[in-house]
Amino acid sequence: MRIVLDTNQLVAALVRPPELATFLMAWASARFTVIASQALVDEYLRVLDYPEISTLIPAELRRTFHTHLLHDIELVEPAETSPICRDPDDDKVIAAAIYGLVDYLVTVDKDLLTHDIVTMLSRLGIKIISGDALIYLLDQSH
């Protein structure tokens, strides 16, 4: 299973202990592959360093992300694309999903859940799901 994690869902996964165990074990055991562009990885790192976010994530978990999980991300280099989303920051998420040939884009961002974007990605075989739905899929397939 190939996924793109929107930053909001990465943060949510890292701050919610019950779901965190399933998420981390599945990622570490390669039950899914996280696909991202360098721009998206840069956003992950920037957001995880925000004081209001970093205080919610235990230091050991942040180290694990930096020393292990970050290196497991498969990087893609999307070509420049025309703006697609109302929020231009979300275009990099869409581009990573398309160029990474993913199965799922994991997000709850309303700008990515518009009918036009969901339809476009669906035509490419990409489903948009929440982090909770990803955890459910992982639990069901285990």
Which secondary structure elements does this structure contain, and how are they paired or packed?
Elements (H helix, E strand, L loop, with lengths): L1 E4 L1 H9 L1 H12 L4 E5 H11 L2 H4 L4 H9 L6 E3 L14 H9 L4 E3 L8 H9 L3 E3 L1 H10 L2
Parallel strand pairs: 1-2, 1-4, 2-3, 4-5
Helix pairs in contact: 2-8
Could you please describe the fold and organization of this structure?
This protein has helices spanning 7-15, 17-28, 38-48, 51-54, 59-67, 91-99, 115-123, 131-140, and strands at residues 2-5, 33-37, 74-76, 104-106, 127-129. By secondary structure, the chain is of the alpha/beta class. The chain has a single domain (2-140), classed as 5'-nuclease (Rossmann fold, 3-Layer(aba) Sandwich). It has a 5-stranded parallel sheet with strand order 3-2-1-4-5. Strand 4 (104-106), helix 7 and strand 5 (127-129) form a beta-alpha-beta unit. It starts with a strand and ends with a helix. The mean pLDDT is 89.
- Proportion of residues in extended strands: 5-15%
**Counted beta strands:** 5
Discrete helix count? 8
Question: What is the gyration radius calculated from CA atoms?
Answer: 14 Å
Order of helices and strands: EHHEHHHEHEHEH
- Kindly report how far apart the N and C termini lie: 13 Å
Strands in their spatial order, largest beta sheet:
3-2-1-4-5
Shape: globular
The name of the CATH superfamily reads 5'-nuclease
